[in-house]
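pinging the channel bc i need a second pair of eyes. not urgent but kinda urgent?? the chain im working w is below, pasted from the shared doc
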Amino acid sequence: MADSKKKNLKDLSYAELVAQRTELKQKYMNVRFQSVIGHVDNPMERRTLRRQIARLNTFIREKEISGLDK
């Protein structure tokens, strides 16, 4: 499943990648706040979200370098 997700990220446009990153950042903030409060369903979710955001940042940067960010 992870391999198909990576291939799907390559096919997304620059705007879609940025929108998805914004959504994941918001979700990450919510998980962080929940962990501070003490209500955590899945403690590994923080790491997973951080890695997904980093992966999106990589694809966004590739598009910026190639000039497809317009």
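so The CA atoms of residues 18 and 60 lie 7 Å apart. and Helices lie at 2-11, 14-37, 45-66. — does that match what u expected or am i reading it wrong
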